[in-house]
Amino acid sequence: MKQANLQKETGPVPKPARRSSVKADTSAPGALSAAPNQIIAAKVAAEAEADVEVEVEATAETGTSITMVKPVINALHILRHLTKTNQPERAVDIARQIGINQSTCFNILRTLVAEDVLAFNPLSKTYTAGNGLAKLVGQFVTQGQRIDVAKPLMRELARRFAVTVTLWRPIGTERIILVNSEVSPTDLRIDMAEGQRLPYLMGASGRIFAGQLDWDKNTMRQAFDKIRWSEPTNFDTYRNEIDKARNCGYAIDDGTFARGIMAIAAPVRDHSGAIVYTVSAVMFRNQYDAEGIATLGRALNELGKKVSGMMF
Questions:
Q1: Which of 114, 129, 144 is the last residue of a domain?
Q2: Rg of the chain's alpha carbons, rounded to an integer?
Q3: DSSP labels for 221-288?
Q4: Are 255 and 230 in contact (CB under 8 A)?
Q5: Are 89 and 47 contained in the same domain?
Q6: Domain count of the fold of the chain
Q7: d(CA 307, CA 270)
C-alpha cells in the first residue's frame, strides 16, 4: 500500500497587529438610526487584508465603544465556513472561500490546530473540526448533533482508504443498529442503509461489543448458534477473535457477515470506558493485504478515540 509523504505546511510569521481607530460619523441625518452592527461590519471590511484591531465608536446617543480584533473575526469566519461545508478543506481553499490572505489564514489554522479546535490531516493537508471544538459545545448539543460532528472524520477515512465507514450502536444485548454510513468517492463502493439492524454478536462490530459482555461461555454459545452466518465459523474461533480484538484494538470479520465482504471495527467509548459505539470499515474481500489491513485497523482505532472525544 502506497503512503503519501508526510510534510508539514510552513508559512510566514504573522505580522504584529496594528490598531486602527475609526469614529462613526454621527453628524449626518439618520446616522444614529443605523444598526451598530452595520457600522462595525463596514469598518471591518475596510481593513480586509490587514491583521489589525478595528475600534468603532458611536459616542452620541449610544455611548458605546467596541474594539473588533481582526484575527478573532477571521478565526470565527473559518470556523463558520468549515461548519457550513462539513467537509475537510485545504488552507488555500478556505482562504479563497472566505476572502482572506493565505498566509493569515494558514497562521490562524495552525493556531486553531494547536488549541485542538481544528484537526489537521497531514496526508491530505486538510482541516476539519477538532475534539476541542466539540467539547466546547458538547453540553449544548444532542446525540444526533454529536454524530454529525464525527461525520467529517468518518468521511475522510472513507476517502483515504476507499472503504465505507459505518457507526454502530447496541440496542440492549439483542441487536446493533447502523446509525451513520459514509461512503468513499470511488466508482465501485459498498452502500449500507442507515437504520438496519443485526444480531448483537454479528460482524466485526459484534466482536467488539461481545468483548465487554459478562456472559458465561454457555450463554454466549447459545446466542452464537442462533446467528445465520454467511460463511460458517466455529464458536472457538469466534471467541479467539474477540480476545485478539481486545489486545490489538480492532476486530475483523472476513466474510462471515457477508460473503465476499470484509469488515474491520474499533470501539468508541464513553467517559466510563464502556463501549457505546463502534466505527467500522466495510470493503471488498482481498482489497488489502495483511499489512494494509493492520494499517486500516490502527487508523480505525484512532478514529474511534477521536469520535469518543467528540461525543463524550
A1: 129
A2: 25
A3: HHHHHTS--SS---HHHHHHHHHHHHHHS-EEEESSSSTTEEEEEEEEE-TTS-EEEEEEEEEETTSS
A4: yes
A5: yes
A6: 2
A7: 10
Q: Are residues 192 and 156 in the same domain?
A: yes
Q: What is the rounded distance in angstroms from the CA atom of residue 143 to the CA atom of residue 72?
A: 29
Is residue 105 located within the same domain as residue 247?
Answer: no
The Cα–Cα gap between 267 and 302 comes to 10
**CA–CA gap between residue 22 and residue 250 (Å, rounded):** 59
Instruction: State how far the Cα of 221 lies from the Cα of 304, in Å rounded to an integer.
Output: 28
> What is the predicted pLDDT for the residue at 27?
40
Owning domain of residue 209: 134-311
Query: What CATH number does the domain containing 23 carry?
Result: 1.10.10.10
Q: Which of 109, 129, 149 lies at the terminal end of a domain, its last residue? A: 129
Claim to verify: residue 194 and residue 60 sit in the same structural domain = no
Distance of CA 64 to the CA centre of its chain: 40
Do residue 143 and residue 53 come from a single domain? no
Q: What is the DSSP letter of 192?
A: -
Looking at the chain, the number of H-run helices and the number of E-run strands are 10, 11
The set of cell numbers assigned to 133 is: 471544538
CB 309 within 8 A of CB 272: no
Pairing mode of beta strands 52-58, 18-23: parallel
Q: What one-character-per-residue DSSP string does 127-163 give?
A: EEE-HHHHHHHGGGS-HHHHHHHHHHHHHHHHHHHTS
Distance (Å, rounded) from C-alpha 165 to C-alpha 278? 10
| Spans in the chain with pLDDT lower than 50 | 1-53, 55-62
Contact 192, 216 (CB under 8 A): no
Q: Residue 49 has which C-alpha cell? A: 487584508
Task: Indicate if 202 and 157 belong to the same structural domain.
Answer: yes
